Amino acid sequence: MTQNSLTSSLFRKEVLAMSAYKVADAGGLIKLDAMENPYGWPEALKTRWLETLRDCPLNRYPDPEAQQLVQTIRMHDQIPGQHAILLGNGSDEIIQLLLMALPPTAGVLSPAPGFVMYRQISHCLGLDYHGVPLLADGFELDLPAMLAAIEQHRPAVVFIAYPNNPTGNLFDPVAIHRIIKAAKGLVIIDEAYAPFADASFITALEEYDNLLLMRTLSKLGLAGLRLGYIAGNPALIEQLNKIRLPYNINCLTQLSADFALTHKALFDQQTQAISANRTLVFNQLNAMDGITAYPSSANFILFRTRQGQADKVYESVKRQGVLIKNINPQGGLLSDCLRVTIGTDSENSAFISALRNSLAGL
Ligand SMILES: *Cc1c(COP(=O)(O)O)cnc(C)c1O
């Protein structure tokens, strides 16, 4: 749509320059594009969940601090009592409120390619965003480049996704420790994929005053609820809490998340199945002529086609009924790359045969 004189006189130039976050229409397709857990809940559990919602007082505002849920999260993720926890409507909201709290000219830095929201929200707020390229073979942090960029730009916030999205790898923890020590501002370790990775910076929270840890329930299996959190130094969390909108976590989310997290065994079983299937899909991908898959500690796999083939392969896989994510348009290190979320056994098989067919038809 073209901008008329009203919109262009009304809104900030950063907003006018942005494009909205687009989500592909998955109607009728096998949905392997958004890092969702593919499994539902047993009927008996659904019934008990609905029971817990029955008396939820929808006429009342929810608990603004969601105290019961915070307590459950603390136990579930073993967050020690000295660290404060702040909840968000997805961790996306937490990224937004953290960046909203910064001075208008503050710098933000993250490795690139990385999670798009760090850049997107920084741009929207007019902040000084810098992406520091990862190393081309294997997407590891370029530590000297990261340290030089921190020295040069003095960012108020450094975001590091661990594991990284969209590459799926865990960066070298030794490099991350060096970055936290070198940073004059905050470092946020974004552990959105913690349920699929056997590594975490939780214990490092005690070592550093400038470190905060961010997590979400989305990838675990509750993407529809929209719940994320950030944990760490209470003095920092206290400031963020001032800009959080008072009732950002609605009562249905509070009750449902609390209920879900008390059924840890179910989610453990589901995430273990996803991790095991990740290995199968990874091996099948790498056995294909013309495909290179990258090792992943998350619930998705990034893979590369031969040069110039990614768009065609993506479209062909979609025509066969499977929606994955085309990463090729992001260019740079991600040229020729596609990303698939691990689904159920039958969804993974459908994807693998669709991909085989596409490659055969090129
Ligand atoms: C998916 C994702 C998020 C956002 O999760 P929500 O809680 O659903 O907003 C944050 N960081 C990374 C790295 C992600 O991949």
The assigned structural class equals alpha/beta
In this structure, how is the largest beta sheet organized? 7 strands, mixed
SSE string: HHEHHEHEHEHEHEEHEHHHEEHEEEH
Mind telling me which CATH architecture of the largest domain this is?
3-Layer(aba) Sandwich
Strand line-up in the sheet with most strands: 2-8-7-6-5-3-4
What's the CATH class of the largest domain, please?
Alpha Beta
Give the tally of β-strands.
13
Distance between the termini: 35 Å
* CATH fold label of the largest domain: Aspartate Aminotransferase, domain 2
Number of helices: 14
CATH superfamily of the largest domain: Type I PLP-dependent aspartate aminotransferase-like (Major domain)
Which ligands occur here? Answer: pyridoxal-5'-phosphate
- The radius of gyration is 21 Å
Q: Please report which band the strand proportion falls in: under 5%, 5-15%, 15-25%, 25-35%, 35-45% or over 45%.
A: 15-25%
Helix content: 40-55%
The stretches of 5 or more residues where confidence is low (pLDDT under 50) are none
